[in-house]
Amino acid sequence: MKKIKELTVDETFEMYVLIKNADVRLAKNGKKFIAFTFQDTSGSIDGKFWDASEDEITRFKAGLVVALNGKREVYQGNPQVKILHLRLTRPDEPSDPGLYMEKAPVKREEMEEEFNQTLFEITNAHWNRIVRFLLNKYQKEFFDFPAAKRNHHAFSGGLAFHTLTMLRLGKSITKEYPQINASLLYAGIILHDLGKVLELTGAAATEYTVAGNLIGHLVLVDEEITKACLELKISEFDEDVVVLRHMVLAHHGLLEYGSPVRPRIMEAEILHQIDNIDASMQMMTSAVKNAEPGTYTERIFGMDNRSFYVPKDV
Amino acid sequence: MKKIKELTVDETFEMYVLIKNADVRLAKNGKKFIAFTFQDTSGSIDGKFWDASEDEITRFKAGLVVALNGKREVYQGNPQVKILHLRLTRPDEPSDPGLYMEKAPVKREEMEEEFNQTLFEITNAHWNRIVRFLLNKYQKEFFDFPAAKRNHHAFSGGLAFHTLTMLRLGKSITKEYPQINASLLYAGIILHDLGKVLELTGAAATEYTVAGNLIGHLVLVDEEITKACLELKISEFDEDVVVLRHMVLAHHGLLEYGSPVRPRIMEAEILHQIDNIDASMQMMTSAVKNAEPGTYTERIFGMDNRSFYVPKDV
Amino acid sequence: MKKIKELTVDETFEMYVLIKNADVRLAKNGKKFIAFTFQDTSGSIDGKFWDASEDEITRFKAGLVVALNGKREVYQGNPQVKILHLRLTRPDEPSDPGLYMEKAPVKREEMEEEFNQTLFEITNAHWNRIVRFLLNKYQKEFFDFPAAKRNHHAFSGGLAFHTLTMLRLGKSITKEYPQINASLLYAGIILHDLGKVLELTGAAATEYTVAGNLIGHLVLVDEEITKACLELKISEFDEDVVVLRHMVLAHHGLLEYGSPVRPRIMEAEILHQIDNIDASMQMMTSAVKNAEPGTYTERIFGMDNRSFYVPKDV
Amino acid sequence: MKKIKELTVDETFEMYVLIKNADVRLAKNGKKFIAFTFQDTSGSIDGKFWDASEDEITRFKAGLVVALNGKREVYQGNPQVKILHLRLTRPDEPSDPGLYMEKAPVKREEMEEEFNQTLFEITNAHWNRIVRFLLNKYQKEFFDFPAAKRNHHAFSGGLAFHTLTMLRLGKSITKEYPQINASLLYAGIILHDLGKVLELTGAAATEYTVAGNLIGHLVLVDEEITKACLELKISEFDEDVVVLRHMVLAHHGLLEYGSPVRPRIMEAEILHQIDNIDASMQMMTSAVKNAEPGTYTERIFGMDNRSFYVPKDV
Amino acid sequence: MKKIKELTVDETFEMYVLIKNADVRLAKNGKKFIAFTFQDTSGSIDGKFWDASEDEITRFKAGLVVALNGKREVYQGNPQVKILHLRLTRPDEPSDPGLYMEKAPVKREEMEEEFNQTLFEITNAHWNRIVRFLLNKYQKEFFDFPAAKRNHHAFSGGLAFHTLTMLRLGKSITKEYPQINASLLYAGIILHDLGKVLELTGAAATEYTVAGNLIGHLVLVDEEITKACLELKISEFDEDVVVLRHMVLAHHGLLEYGSPVRPRIMEAEILHQIDNIDASMQMMTSAVKNAEPGTYTERIFGMDNRSFYVPKDV
Amino acid sequence: MKKIKELTVDETFEMYVLIKNADVRLAKNGKKFIAFTFQDTSGSIDGKFWDASEDEITRFKAGLVVALNGKREVYQGNPQVKILHLRLTRPDEPSDPGLYMEKAPVKREEMEEEFNQTLFEITNAHWNRIVRFLLNKYQKEFFDFPAAKRNHHAFSGGLAFHTLTMLRLGKSITKEYPQINASLLYAGIILHDLGKVLELTGAAATEYTVAGNLIGHLVLVDEEITKACLELKISEFDEDVVVLRHMVLAHHGLLEYGSPVRPRIMEAEILHQIDNIDASMQMMTSAVKNAEPGTYTERIFGMDNRSFYVPKDV
């Protein structure tokens, strides 16, 4: 069966897709319609369901898998689907939303293994125990959550995958600069975005929680470290713990980006720069994948709204 | 006995003062001298002690009360003292540094009483218990610490006095706008700067702690609320607790000023504006007090480096 | 009779409303329609009048009261009215536009009384005479005009009400800080936005005048003070007059906000901060009133485009 | 007799100079000294007068002409004079301060003549009358004042000269763009900086007045136009008068530079740009004059602190 | 025959026009339509061609001249044409696109003559030879290209016309300030925007080239000077050549506007300011031409999005 | 023999050092003195030579090696040397300035070898030839020049060492992200700062050249690529060459930092980020080396003036 991104213009198709969004609106003729976003592992596409009955509105909710019969069209330059027929899946058909969500390109087991190996390289006892404690506490969410609602790594497992890639970069960089405290850098990398498991609602239909909006993931993970210290009977005012909290609080680099303090230790600055590299690589790669050589990508919001050129013949 | 600020130019005097700073430096002639700042409750003044012996350097340390015989002069537009004679106080002379530090203009007992009264107006049980817990935990420091190293309320008891004045303003404003949640505003005001007892070293020779520099008082008090919840068995994810944490985290108003989130609830915005009013009133008043009518004050760093005009005949 | 804001979705109704705007546009089918905004004291709502004849276009003008038979719907998330029938009011029906405009929550007489009382507290003779002269000169407009075209206090009487609330705040703050020159602060508050009676066209269908756009209300009121001095035979270079002009010119606080000078006297800074408090309280309150507890308000343009959270269960 | 700028390093000299500044300070040895700035038409130089007696302090005041016997030296890279002997001028010696101040390079009579000619080209009756009225009212000051305390045209007659050069540029530009309203542009140019006669204290020992600091020359001249209208019985709300006031208020171009409104009519934008050209030409020319070809000028504060290169062999 | 800008609302007409843009889109009914922009020497207008067949889509391409029978309407405040009939021109009808493009208001021959005269005023041999070489190399494009894709001088010949007007301004300014090196200023003016012949694709259907986007016209003309030096056997490190390269690289004035260096020689600063004057005069004049006296122009993107007022009765 | 950085306070010593700077100034007593900066491979220190005769001023010039007998003191918190005796080196003593300059920590031969190996990984023929051509043309300077006048890698060989470290980082990052065009990244890295051999004067007494100040190293290397293309008969408008020029022009990342274009291809963005990492690692490491654990470094100008904390016991 074809995937959403493989359809050509004017192609008629039938496929199973996940309803990502389902907003009910009023048409100019006074009747209701549903503005759908459908999703599979290749990407997503919008489509309008006109003259929706109350029954249909109740039936087709976000988070459900449906059988979609449609035609792939273009509307104002964007892909869209003309819905020919839509129904819920039958018992003998696939209905697990997880099958239709984008996923991290590395298997969870491999990621877990690599994190576990890294834990042995965190030789400071306080950092090691805090990291183990929190990875354990949020194990399920860590490997399930995206790294963001949109922008970069906005897919299931994106949080762990983003963290893992940063760890790999961190190891390369540490090799080049032995003056870096590797234990501290690795501990900081593993924890830096863990607050996102409290900031966001999860992998499907990702939204910000109230705590996410009012406190933010930087402080949320700092509070988790504080509570871990209480439980592990580590003084949170030991200098190594203060320094670890600084690592996570400072990782956005600038006050304007929401860090309450700018990096004031070497490893905190490097953590911030590694984060930048992986986030921008992920955003640029996604954009470049959707553009032909010799053309420009769409503007990337998270990169100051720049569009990038994809060179040809090089 | 006269106070420092009452001396006239070229006046010779003898008085007891506190050594606020004592920096040892090298003169152009290769000999050491001590650059003193002396202080009493009226203010402070600089003076150089030339050709200091190793013995004198050891004897005259910051934090000690001394008997100073000097002449009040002016150097490059600033007051300074020419030191004629200097000695440590004798057993029968006053030697308590507390006698020579600026103090809040309201007595501690009165302030305590007013805070206690306010606690009854915080009707939300979580907020009430958290505020009581933390006021209790840091009672001594709260009434002793300054509100800042320099700039505004940089005197003993300044933290409590700044908080109290804000409470009074908060009550007036709440009267004008009944839509404000008074409990929340008062709880937020009381806690907003409490992290300074961890950010600063104390009332005398005030410096930033490592945690103050690397974490900052906004997050430090947020962590205290988190720990209080654990001890008081309040869920820190109850919405009222989230909202209280937001109050303290957002009170600098702008990300550029170190808040990890901007105010997103009405009371948080008002807390920020009340803080502004009291801080700027205190800075302007200090500056205006030292300027003659018809002249301009010194530039005030904390107010975008503006100097203010003191009108005459109005 | 119900008010606009009391209608429920899909409710059919008949009511008298004021035409606030009536823009004629061309539909996709080549026929003209009128895009109406209807208004009563509870708020406003949009509605389209399709296939409008030239006669209807001439008849239904902004500023008239009409009898509207319609159905309350939702279009792209915003309330709108489907117009079933529309006609001008008959002689025996209410037709005074003033009946359908939002109003200040305090009666004009009460406001006048309170301003008059305050005049006795302005003890400097120049300030007192200038304020009396200008309040007298623009008495009608002062109690009729809004404080802005949109954003805060955008209703009939909004200018006087905004000024009055600021006066009340000013009195509370002066009580806390006796070093403030109360006469000056009150005179400055009363005059600070009076230039809006020249900047705007009035309470109904409020627009900017040419002088409003090219000169602005800060300088317009400064010019009024200058002319008042000529008429009252007060030298405009007396220091107290200079200081009063500074109060009104500096009240936007920052050059970027249109003040030609930043506050350089203590009372000017405080005037600016009081203005901030009342303007933001009014904007936040309007927004919060339209949002359910547990949700976020619309973004507020005048507050750096932030949306605010309305806590629940607190 | 040589001029200040013609002296070579280590040259001993005797000349008449004007005392521009005379600040009394305290030396490290506890004795007073006078920090002088001496001036003649070629420029100025600093010099310290050590061990000054009270009598000497009283005798040598700013604004007096003195006979100076000194040696031209260099101190920390800057020219300075070692004072060998200093005395007041005798009755038979020159003592008019005006002889020692920098002057505009065009004679006052020529400037007056050129302004008079231009008045005939201002064909709008309101503008013509207002400009004549104000030029007449401030005639003496207009031809005497500098255009600024420091930065550009900071010399006697600088205000009129700056205005005249702008008029000449304005005429050239109007020839290129006939769509410009020449009357308006010329009226705007003549009035744009006239408020400086109220903002500054005069040509010698130039300081800001209180009105200059608290109101600023843009609004000061706007007020003058307002008062002129009252006296000339011109309505200040006639559109041409509004537009003229806009010209002077907007001429700093950006709110950040102190204009309460940005240019909103074509001629106001061009007035701003002409002002820029003449101000920057004057600043660059002064700086370049003091630098050798092949070297860089000092940093120019008024041009974003840039230093300029003076090319050689071109 | 009438021109586009001369049509009145609801007027039916027939005229020859150039297809400037022809975008194919999908209507809500699922059928394709062509969104046209038609152009003649007076300006341009949009119009939609509904239910376009594949044949029509192929036939009506941008860059072709067509015979248009339509009705001039208004849609959402903007002029638009309702297309009644559309056909390609017949052999006996005009079909040269150049006949329908806006043109510089000065004839090419006159411009060439004026540039040639100016070359004699560039007395430095290096500058003279480089300018001649490059004007010769890109002669055709220089007189054909617009000065920008949109904003100012966006018409055929706009580049040469913009350059010529700047030269005229440059000559007036040089007369006022003889300290300016006229040779250098004129050489800089002629070359400053010449890189646009490589940055843009040409006069019709103007787009940015890849080199335009990735390198920009400032560096592109700098490279041309470098190559010219190689061919003319002039050392590119001679100071006069360095200075000329600086002129073109610095002419945007600020780093934020894409200059890799800010102006550091007097003539470079003046070149930048002359460029500002002509660009803004052209943008303001275009906007003002389309607005009635007593109204405001559309917002002008290139002038910080300001709209300008067109005074009446002045 | 001890090195400069190994001296303790008040230690008397004799050593050979290089005169880095020798500024002649006038003391308050009217006599000349020389303000020296002495340097060896461990760092530098200042010292004043009082009462310098004309002969001594002529003898002790920057760039010479001298025998210094002095005492290591502290002046206003900074290390300085009290000069007891100073003389030029004798024929039998070391006099090669190169022996006293800081050097890259990797040997030139090793660096050359690593660059040569990398050339084989640049598989695009144009890029390969251009890089080889320019490395060859500026071979001597590339391995001799510093990467900056001050800030980071300000030592002999710093340019090549900075480039080499970036290459190593580039290779690690490319391994993590195979979507990066490695050839392009490596070519861009090698050339990105090569313009510094024209921007700066060399390794000793490093200053900016006129071309460095007026054109800057980004455009200077772009011009070198342009000229290389002419000599190698490669069309500079081939897309791969355009892209390579973009790499060097965009590597400062932001217009405000002097790039005429922001990165618009993926590899250009990554080049910029790698540059950031190595520059900041070098600046932080230098600063941290001079600070004790538990203290803060000096403020680092190139890192937004932050000071960094050096944790202890971690």
TrEMBL record, chains A, B, C, D, E, F:
It comes from the Bacteria. It holds the Pfam family tRNA_anti-codon. Transmembrane segments: none annotated. Residues 159-280 form the HD domain. Keywords: Hydrolase. Coiled coil: none annotated. PANTHER family: 3'-5' EXORIBONUCLEASE YHAM. This is HD domain-containing protein. It comes from Enterococcus alishanensis.
